[in-house]
Write a structure and sequence with these properties.
The protein is of the alpha+beta class. Helices cover 34% and strands 16% of the residues. It folds into two domains: 40-172, SCP2 sterol-binding domain (Nonspecific Lipid-transfer Protein, Chain A); 181-442, Jelly Rolls (Sandwich), CATH 2.60.120. Helix 2 (40-61) packs antiparallel against helix 5. The structure holds fe (ii) ion (FE2).
Amino acid sequence: MKSATAEGERAGVEDAMADRPQAPAMDLITLPHHVELLSDRWLDEAAKFFREALPMRRQALGGRPFSLSERFTDAPAHLKFPGDAAAWSLRFDGQDVAISRTFDPAADVVLECEYQAALALAQFVGVLVPGGPEAMWREARQMFGADAFRPRGQLADDQARTLVGLFHDHMARRTVENPDLEHRARRMGLTGKIREMEEQGFTVIERAISDEFADEVRAAIKGAVQPQQGVSMNWMLYQGRPFERITLNPMAMTLIDASLGRGAQLASNAAIIRGPGAGLIDIHTDYTDVPEPYPDFAMSGVSVWALEDWTEASGPTWIVPGSHRMRRAPRNGEGLDAGVPVEMPKGSVVFFTQGVWHWQGHRTEPGERVTLHPHFNRGILRSVEQKRPDVQMFARNPPRLGEMMGEDDWFDKMTPTGRDYVRLEHMRQLHAFTNWKMKQIRAPLEVAA
Ligand SMILES: [Fe+2]
């Protein structure tokens, strides 16, 4: 940590601005109250959970033993697992819990999969809520494939199931996303999408969520947007679990990290319902009050979730590919002849960024187009919506939600004793690691892993 002197502060700020192509220091890649899946700190936190939970639950468990074990392959290199494979086991002998790094294929419950896929489960809070486990597995398989997970066995005892469920959620609200952006993007099949986003100013991830989840979000929007509000509503993050879960979608967040850097803030989250007729939003960029020429890095980006199939007739967003390279707004309708409609199936998301030119198309078919628009800004910028921090909302989500709400950076956190140097250093390391990994994504042969 830096000293609180003026000189120390200056050095900290200057270092924070520096672009570091080298592998960064990693001691604060994760905040002290967060953990990376299967790191030593994750296992310590797991042991602490059972130390505290068992005295209250031992009697109810009735001396009946249970065990579970997991093994994950293709973990990111910075975790330094032998062969990049990590395993762990939990065994309750009827009295106490023992946790180890060995894999026990004979455990009552066993899961094998790749590490990045495991993170989709490990960051899901709510496995004891009705429908929770089904939603967790369904969306994880949607992203990683129906055969990505090899679970077997189950816990026969209700009390054991409840304790393990509480444990899962305890860890999930502390478990961070994989900070190795290159590894994460590669394991999700998004490396090409990131390159396309940088080339064209936008990219589409097809079917990032299931049809069932798209229907659930669509119904929630229809239930939340009241007629007196017209056809759109902001602050949708605060309208319930489906909006938290879709905004946290790991594939969309990977594009956001790649475009806007870690610590990007949720600037607004609007739902829009529109019927047939001419588009209501002319060609523009989303860079309100940003002076021209725009910077050569992205300041802002918007995801639009398609909750029905998007065709040209359904009134999709139109985008002028590559127009972000102009680094200015279009003049007098300029660009209209170069736009393309964003066509994508239900459950897909388009992410457009860096001042790319776009507009809302005409809808020539009947019915309504219902969309959700999570809009992010680089973490150094202000937002459109005031944030509504809620301790309960943080407790039912992984740390990624707090990060987009500004919980993990040092802005707006001055205390009587000075700046939040822990968060300053944490975000500085995350930025350095992410910048280094972006260089690998752009030129994998030139920047060694
Ligand atoms: Fe826009």
